[in-house]
Hints:
Elements: H1 3-14, H2 16-41, H3 46-53, H4 57-65, H5 72-81
Helix pairs in contact: 1-2, 3-4
Amino acid sequence: MSDLKKYVSKRKQLDEEFSENYENGYQAFKIGALLKQAREASGLTQEEIAKKMHTKKSAISRIENHAEDIRLSTLEKAAVALGRKLEVSIS
């Protein structure tokens, strides 16, 4: 286990608020990272996908780097612009 994983694990045990915020923050980070990865795999720049989504490049950057409160409709627009399908599941 890496030092970071050890630190996070220990901190989660000691601090309930950190544990809750860490998980929420990680999920938001993961969504943004997945969108960036899909955009890059499609060979699109932030500016190109912004045009397809009828928004600004800064909005795409914000989504990719800070997706804490992204709307489902925005995710759907991104998927369409990328020629992909959005799948949502609750498990």
